[in-house]
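Please produce the structure of this protein holding manganese (II) ion.
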Amino acid sequence: MSYKAEYIWIDGTEPTAKLRSKTKILADGAEPPVWGFDGSSTNQAEGHASDRVLRPVASFPDPIRGGENLLVLCEVFDTDDDTPHSSNTRALLRPVAERFGGQEPLFGIEQEYTFFKGSRPLGFPENGFPAPQGGYYCGVGADEIYGREIVEAHLENCLRAGLGISGINAEVMPGQWEFQVGPLSPLEVADQLWVARWLLYRTAEDFGVSATLDPKPAKGDWNGAGAHTNFSTRAMREGYDAIITACDALGAEGKPLHHVRNYGTGVEDRLTGAHETAPWDEYSYGVSDRGASVRIPWQVERDKKGYIEDRRPNANCDPYVVTRLLVETCCAELERAGLA
Ligand code: ADP
Ligand code: MN
Ligand code: MN
Ligand code: MN
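Below is the modeled complex.
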C-alpha cells in the first residue's frame, strides 16, 4: 500500500512569493524524504543549474485527500543540501526563535483575504459597485455575504489538518474574509499560516473561485487587507511593564521603518491613515486604538497584562519575516529591561 504526500513550498517570485506544491507517492509508513524540484520554473534557480532541494519541516493530515495522505511543508535548500536558498526566510527565523525561546513568545495572526470570481471581487456586480461598506463586516444574509460555503469548507479543512485556527469572520468589503491562526510559537504560527493559505487556495479552487492576499484588492473607498499580528511573551502575559516596553521598543529609532518595509509588498498603499490604519511613516500605539500602528486591547489595559496587536503587516506579508522582526525587536529590549 502507498500514500500521497503533497510537498508544499514557498517560491522565489518577486516582490511577493507564491506557494507551490507537487505530489510524491510513498510506501505506507515511510517518512517523507528530502526531494527536489526545478528551481528555474519558480524563480529559485537558473536553467543551467536548476535543481533545488525540498527538506520537509512539518507534516499535517491532508484534509483534501483524506486517509493516510499528508501535507508536507518544506524549506528550500541549494543542492549542497546545507545552504538555505536565498528565498528561504524560515531559515532566518529558526535561530532567532531559538535565541529568545526562553521568553516563550506567542503569536496569533489575523489573515484577511478576498475572493475573486474572474476579474471582480466575489459579490461585486458586473457593472458598477455594491452598496458602500457598513453592513458586510460579520454580516449575515444573501445580500451581504459572498462565499460562505467556501469559508466553511476551508475552516473544516484547517481543523481536519490539525492547524491551530482560532476563528473566522466576514470582513468590511463584500467577498472579503478573515481567519485567525494561533496563539502559537513563532515557527508554528508561520508554518501553519502558510499551510492555511495553501488550503484556502486549494479549497476555493473546487468552487471555481480564486482567493487573493492583495493588500488593496479594490481601488477606492474600500478597506485594504491586512494580517494583524498579535504578540506576547511570558512577561507580557504576566505584567503591564512588559507590554509598554514592547510598544516602546517598536517605536525606537529606526525600528518603525525597518518593520514596515518588511511587512509586505505595497504596505504604503494600505497604511494611508484612512480605513482603520495609521500612516506607514508615523509610529504610534494606543489602547483600543484601531487608528494606531500598535493596539493594546482594552482588556489588556484593564487586566494589566496580555498581548499587543501590530496592525501594520499586510495580508501578503511573510509570517516568517514578521514574527522574526517582532521577536528580535521586542525580546531583545525586554531582555535589556530585565523583563525576560
Ligand atoms: P481583533 O479584535 O483584532 O479582530 P481577533 O479575535 O481577530 O482580534 O484575533 C486576535 C488573535 O490574537 C487571535 O488569533 C488570538 O488567538 C490571538 N491571541 C490571543 N491572546 C494572545 C496572546 N496572549 N498572545 C498572542 N496572541 C494572542
Ligand atoms: Mn480580527
Ligand atoms: Mn480584520
Ligand atoms: Mn485585529
